[in-house]
Amino acid sequence: MESSGPDFNFIHLDTVNSTNSYLIDLLSKTSPTDGFCVFSDFQTEGRGQYGRIWQSYPAVNILASFAYRTSWLEEKQVFCLNQISALAVLGVLQDYLPGEDIVIKWPNDILCNRKKIAGILIQNIFRGSQMQWSVVGIGLNVNQTDFDPSLIATSMRQVAGLNFDRMLLLRALHDRLNHLMALKSGDRNFDLLDDYNASLFGHGQKVLLEKTGGIRFEAVLLGVDESGNLRMNVDGHFQSMDWSMVRIILPAG
Ligand code: BTN
What we know:
globular; 5-stranded antiparallel beta sheet; binds biotin
């Protein structure tokens, strides 16, 4: 089903393999307006970061991908898309769940009360070395009532004890994404990193991390730099690592 409002065009599907994959395929054939969205009630092959799968019960959560023209962006600045997406989701959740502890877990998970409530998968489409489109895929746990305990996940429903209107949330997400994307594309020096770091899980604290290969260690997080590298103090020594080298481990319970 295709729907549109004055400024919001989207396709609402019952089921799809992955909204990101569907939108990437669509972008090879058509040129939609900025912010065009593919929303689905269910995904058979929902994709997550690090090649993981993204699971969701049918018709209770937000599974959506948004297309943005990003030819204005140089590849080295690509981390600003993580900042925009994470801050958009964070802002919506802060509006809907006031008073809750909502933070960004680097590089772009959103935690509510130390459990994962949303994940973001950004995929960029290039023509040669030039960015053309970016697809921002967002999985937001809205009305799901239970999760596999190993996932350390939660939903808006679990936090607030009530059901939320997914369409209102989708529009709120779209509005915030559009707003931040317009600010950044209008002025590439517009700073979002301070806001990102201000809401960073573990900022200034000791957290547990795991290197690719499985070695775990503790470090005090110092923040994230413009390129998206995590800056940290490990036993008194400064280190900076990118997201392919290390991930933050959430303590269970
Ligand atoms: C992660 O935390 O690993 C990222 C999860 C991103 C999931 C969303 S759901 C909508 C979009 N389509 C996908 O296949 N993945 C993203």
